Every structure is written in structure tokens, then in C-alpha cells.
Protein: Ketosynthase chain-length factor
Amino acid sequence: MSTQRPRRAAVTGIGVVAPNGLGSDAYWKSVAEGLGVLDLISREGCGHLPLRVAGEVRSFDPASLIEERFLVQTDRFSHFAMAAAALALDDAGLSADPADPFAVGVVTAAGSGGGEFGQRELQKLWGRGSKFVGPYQSIAWFYAASTGQISIRGGFKGPCGVVASDEAGGLDSLAHAARAVARGTDVMLVGAAEAPLAPYSMVCQLGYPELSTVDDPDRAYRPFTEKACGFVPAEGGALLVVEDEARARGRGVPVRAVVAGHSATFTGASRWAESREGLARAIRGALDEAGCAPEEVDVVFADAMGVPEADRAEALAIADALGAHGTRVPVTAPKTGIGRAHCAAPVLDTVAAVLAMEHDQVPPTPNVSDICHDLDLVTSRARPAELRTALVLSRGLMGSNAALVVRRGDESAR
Structure:
């Protein structure tokens, strides 16, 4: 009978392109300080829309990071993803030209797709005629475009895919990658990036009643308070290198965290009261897969929808799943400072969780005070704490719920 230890998925590289910084160091500095970067939307063609506030990535020059041949055939959301992937590979000490290309796979999650590219080409179609539509219209808008371009650019021929399961798909993609590693793939590039701030994409979002149309950046997104009025969107995202833990330690690189457990459920679009049970079940499932007791959770990164009914359901779900510990464990939602980047939001939260464990600090929840739920929500400033295990939560507007357990790297070696 084999006693070989199961292959576990270790996070060894992190790449971030977010409204509050390019790279994990800049991102963490802003998150740890509780800086809010929400502002009035500056994108051309958006000024007349009722959606006024968002998290924009303002200091991003794709031409300085991505080759021209890829730029012309890809949308902004793929630019973010490709840049984040390159940063993650560099952080992990891995080459974009692997010796065994079949040992490296890519999986991303996507919600909005390439709206800006698609809008531009459709305007050419209706304004000038079909001969003026570029050939890349057929692929640049597609949800799988980022996965495809990252794999082509890096020469990666391992298992590749895209997860399209609502905003919670960001966590589902991490589970997908972890399972690929468990089945024998050496390395997976995984994460999500979104670019939902083009006029066409924004108009599509206006049908969501959960969207905040408040025009004051300091008041537009305040979950878990009596003044909660919805969420604001954001662009950007993050990619992580996830590889077999034993392989990583053999390479001599730091194991930054281990993807320990995941579970997902579905409770229906905008049925926020019902999401209580669905999210609680997801939490229990993730803890069971991780072999983690509720009291072992040291910090919770909340979904933080910003809708009163949804916030109440999440607070109750945490209590349902964690018991008495649910009212004591520190909870945070750093996304209130940068906006909710759809599928990329829980991936950015996972990055924040990994960095929080490395720094033993629970980052604050910007712009939020006067909590009206029985949660130990960290506000104002970061809270020092010994962090070994983090729980990341996510729900989608169409009804998906997911929970992910990550453990700090040095704990996994014990």
C-alpha cells in the first residue's frame, strides 16, 4: 500500500494588476494601509451613464508589457491577464518557455469578456461596413481569450480551460487548478482579470439592481452598514502560479500558501436570503476538504455584496458554518477600497489572504464603519494577528456561492 503524500497545490507566484497598484508589493501596501482608490469613472463614452463610480486601473501601459502582435488581437481584460501572468511567473522563478510545455496549464475565470474590443468592432460594422471589421473580433471578446493568449504566449500545452460560473468562478478556477495539480500537472497559471468599464459593458451591468449608482466615491460601496447601497465594479485582476508543493520545495522556492479546500453551491439569481444556506454549505464543504475545524480559521475575506439582504445572509452564513467562532473571527473586505472586479474579485481577495498570512496582518475594510451585523469586521486600520488559515468567500449575481481555504506555506510543511 502506497504511503506517498498526496500532491498539494502550492502558491509560488503572484501577479497583480489592480486599481490600487501594479504588482503584489504595491497591491499589498495599499490594501494594508486601507487606501481607497474608488473615483468617478473617466473612461470615454461613459459620462452620461448612471453608473458613476468604479475602480479603474489608471497607470497601466499594455504596450510596455505585452508584444504588439498580441495587443492587436486582444481586449483590455486579456491585457490585464497577460501582464499579471508574466508577473506571477517571474515571482515564481519560472520561465515562459518551459522545458516541458505539457507540464504547465492555464485556467482563468471570466464574467464580462472583451466588451471594449467587441464594441469597437461592432461600431465599425454599423458605421463603415463589414470590410472594416478586424479578423480578431471573432476571438478577442470571448471568455476564453485570456487563457488562450497566455498559453500561446508562454508556450504552455498542459490542461487549459476557462471557468464561466458567475463571479464565484474566480474561486472555482483556483479549485480547478488545484485539482489539476493533484492529478499530475506540475504547474498551473490560474486567476481572473476583468475590464467591465467600456460603455457597452457598463450598459449591460445597469440591469443589476445590486449595482450602486451613488456618485460619491466614499459612500458608493459600504457593505455591512445600514447605508449599504450596492457595489461598485472594478477592472483588473490577478494570476497565481500554483504548482505541486513537493516540486516547489525541490526547486528551492518559497511556498507562499497552499490551496487546501474548496466547495461551491448554487442558490439562484438575486435570491440573497437563500444564499445564506448555500454559502454556509460551501464553507462547510471547503473546511471538510481542507481538514480544517471552524475554530482554526484565523481570518475571513468576505464577499461583501453591499446589499442589505445579501450582507445579512453572509453574516448569518458565517455564523451558521463557524458557530460561535463566526462572531469572533476577524472579517475583512478590502475590495471596498478598489471595487468589485467580478470574477477577479475573489482572486484578488485570495492574493490579499496569502499576503496577510505572510505579514500577520488583517487588512482593513475601507470606507466602512458603524457595522450593523454581528461580525468582527476589521475597519480603519490593519490588525496584527497570527494568521495560519484564511477563508475566502464569493457569491455571484446569478446565484453561485463558493468558499476557499488557504493555509500559509510554512504550516503546510509540518
Observations:
- Residues 9-251 form a domain with the Peroxisomal Thiolase; Chain A, domain 1 fold (CATH 3.40.47.10).
- The chain has a mean pLDDT of 94.
- The CA atoms of residues 62 and 79 lie 6 Å apart.
